[in-house]
Specification:
Shape: elongated
Region (Disordered): 209-233
Pfam families: DUF4191
Protein name: DUF4191 domain-containing protein
Organism: Streptomyces galilaeus
Keywords: Membrane, Transmembrane, Transmembrane helix
Strand content: 5-15%
Strand order of the largest sheet: 1-2-3-4
Number of strands: 4
Largest sheet: 4 strands, mixed
Helix content: 55-70%
Radius of gyration: 25 Å
């Protein structure tokens, strides 16, 4: 029992530290987070307490008001923390990959299946909606990279729908905070076995990182790889 109590206390302490850290990170981007949370809690509690006096049960309504105030504060805090996190990630290289990594069950994601020298990148996700190619980078450069990858997907898995999304804030682009929602809204047209088959076929191709040739041992200073990425023989 003592060990279980110690483990539970450690878990609770870890959660409190995580909440505190999340609050500090959110406050850097959202200076009013403290006032907003306080206002939500006080207003929620006040409304239920007032209702309690009106119906003649202020104590019961007050207890309910405390619980609901805590719940409302937690919901608002979660949403503002998520918004602040996306705001800090917006425009950062690899931000879309971080979102895809947490998209949820039913999706298989592969980061950086295509990339150019300017570090514009295309990620791939496979699910019941088919294949989704997610591009991030300069819109003028990454469109050609995205088109080339989409053409390759249509050639290899012609029977699977291929969607393409460009992450950004411009016209026709998907904001980072809406990427997950946009993907989950895509129509589901594949069965579980079709998704597995598609993943197997794409996995056989490998990805950019696994196909990239790297020299064995340390690379001499000043040495550059020849064009095409092949090792000198």
């Amino acid at each position: 029992m003592a060990r279980k109590d110690t483990a539970a206390d450690a878990a609770n302490t870890g959660r409190l530290k995580q909440i505190a850290l999340t609050y500090k990170m959110t406050r850097k981007a959202d200076k009013k987070i403290g006032l907003v949370l306080a206002a939500v809690g006080i207003v929620t509690f006040g409304v239920f307490l007032a209702i309690g006096f009106l119906i003649g049960h202020p104590i019961y309504a007050g207890i309910l008001g405390v619980l609901l105030a805590f719940l409302a504060t937690a919901i608002v805090f979660g949403r503002r923390a998520e918004r602040a996190a996306f705001g800090q990630m917006e425009g950062q290289p690899g931000a879309a990959a971080a979102v895809l990594d947490n998209i949820g069950r039913g999706w298989t994601t592969t980061p950086a299946v295509a990339m150019n020298r300017s570090q514009d990148v295309v990620h791939r996700a496979v699910g019941k909606a088919g294949i989704v190619l997610i591009a991030e980078g300069n819109p003028n450069r990454v469109k050609s990279l995205l088109a080339a990858e989409k053409k390759k997907m249509n050639r290899i898995v012609a029977d699977v729908p291929v969607h393409d999304l460009l992450v950004g804030t411009g016209e026709g682009q998907v904001e980072l905070k809406k990427l997950r929602t946009t993907m989950l809204k895509l129509p589901r047209v594949l069965t579980g076995s079709q998704v597995t088959t598609t993943n197997d076929r794409l996995r056989a191709l490998g990805d950019l990182m696994s196909n990239m040739p790297l020299p064995k041992g340390p690379m001499p200073k000043g040495m550059r790889l020849p064009k095409g990425g092949q090792r000198p023989r």
